[in-house]
What we know:
By secondary structure, this protein is of the alpha/beta class. It contains 9 helices and 10 strands. The model is unreliable at about 200-210 (pLDDT under 50).
Amino acid sequence: xxxxxxxxxxxxxxDVLKHLCQMVLIEKLKSKEKGFCYFDTHSxxxxxxxxxxxxxxxxxxxxxxxxxxxxxxxxxxxNHYLQLVNAYQDFNQYPGSPEIAKSxxxxxxxxxxxxxxxxxxxxxxxxxxxxxxxxxxxxxxxxLKALTPPVMQRGLVLIxxxxxxxxxxxxxxxxxxxxxKKWNSAIYAIWYPLIKNRRQTSDTFDSTASKKGKSExxxxxxxxxxxxxxxKVELRVTDGDDAExxxxxxxxxxxxxxxxxxxxxxxxxxxxxxxxxxxxxxxxVEWLIQD
Length: 291
């Protein structure tokens, strides 16, 4: 059993990017009356306490959602996101992707959540519940392949692993390749970190050394698959040369809906300066495969 718990990282700049993309994608699906199915392969606890010992140990939310507290921006998608998360911040909480999806889905939509960590699945079941919501204590990669295709043709799959093991990058590709063959009409949204290698000392070895460049390799391998389209969205709060560890993150979007690229680009144009840790912050929206 892996030890990763998202409570240490909830509300960081990676979450801001991930959840902005998630909400815009759900809104695009809701533009049609017909229902859709939302899958979350690595659901976590669903809701996180920003005043917990885990969150306060890293204080990552202070470099993420807290920087947007007083933001005044002329962007409907950002304001929708802030309106949603601010309701939780009144209780020192931050909503994870399952809670965000639950708050946005309609009666005709369905949600399938998966979590493998023994404690987190209990937290998830305590935090999330309701009609048309299924929660599974199982490996998200295995579960996605087993539970697709759903009866509904339309859907969104959010894949947000911890990448605690470097092998997970290839596991993401293998899972997408297998699932896409069965359900090629769904939108797939894959979060990944941008990691700067920490220096190796003579008597210690940092495990991120084996992960440096893995995101880039994963994207390259995904771009070689027979996909309809593939969009790369990245937010960098600093330059990789200036950072140690994660200096940004990205979302690989398969079957990105019409105008999603322009909407998320408008979001990042306004959000990036607010999250910037120095003058070397940047963002990019790039088609790797375009139909």
